[in-house]
């Protein structure tokens, strides 16, 4: 057990219990323990602002020693699907660098403070404009697909579908990377918008929201598949 300093004696078991009993943290921690994917916005839109804050940080949260923790380095340096940028580049105007980068990188020519600030402001302004545009496109895409499937009755058990599961590789254009996996088979319809799918009888089942599914076609008309 890890003892923590404070007015009372706390240990990891006590902290874990407090997290599980917390109305905002409890569900997030339990879903992480069970290895579930982040729920869609429609599933948590009625939750508290605090809960939505944790939901937004889903990719940077992890379970360690039975405790829900935030992994700062991974979160800040990972390219996020919705924005196409790392949080570090959006907030600081530059990517994070490791100590080894400071040793191996070629020294840059010195520049005045005014020039540096001017370039940083321009870079941040351009980045924020680009991110806002991408977020708007992503929001419109999700709404369109959600409305389409909701209005057509959803998927049936046994139906073949593609799963939207983009995987970004640093240094490679997102347009050249594959975002659709499949085909998967709908195993169970848990409710109007949540399904249990499976790629093959030996594969692990996935529970996903309808906005990540599209009817199976061969090949997918818009993007590459795996």
Automatic annotation (TrEMBL):
It comes from the Eukaryota. Residues 182-215 form the Integrase p58-like C-terminal domain. Residues 14-23 have a biased composition (Basic and acidic residues). Residues 1-23 are annotated as: Disordered. InterPro entries: Integrase_p58-like_C, Retrovirus_Pol_polyprotein. Pfam families: Integrase_p58_C (PF22938). Signal peptide: none annotated. This is Integrase p58-like C-terminal domain-containing protein. It comes from Exocentrus adspersus.
